[in-house]
Amino acid sequence: MTLSIALFNALSGLQVNQTALQVTSSNVANVNTPDYARKIHDQQNRVLGGIGAGVETAQIVRRIDQFLRRDLMEETTVLGNAEVRADYLNRMQTLFGSLGNNNALGNSITDLAVAIENVANSPEVAAHRFDAVNEAAEMAQYFNSMGDQIQQLRTQADAEIGAAVDTINTELQIIADLNSQIANNLVKGQPVGDLQDRRDVAVKTISEYMDLQEFTDATGQVRLFTAAGRSLVSGVTVSSLSYTTTPFMTANESYPATISGIYLNGPTNDISAEITSGKLGALIEMRDQALPAMTNELDQLAAQMRNEVNRVHNRGANTPFGLGTAAGDPAAMYGSREIATPTDPLTLGSGVTFAILDADGNSVTAPMTIAAGATTPNAILASIDGYLTAAPGYGTAAWNANRMEIKLEPGYRLAILDNGPAADMGDATITFDADGDTVSENYLGFSNFFGLNDLFETPALTGGVLAMENQGSDLGISSTMQVRQSIIDDPSYLSRGMLRGTVPNLTLGVGDNEIAQQLANAFGQNFDYASIANGPSAVSTTFSGYAGEILSFNASQTASADEALKFETFFFEDLQARFNSEAGVNLDEELANMTIFQNAYNASARLVQTVDEMFDTLLSLA
Question: Which one, of 339, 306, 362, lies nearest residue 500 by Cα?
Answer without folding.
Answer: 362
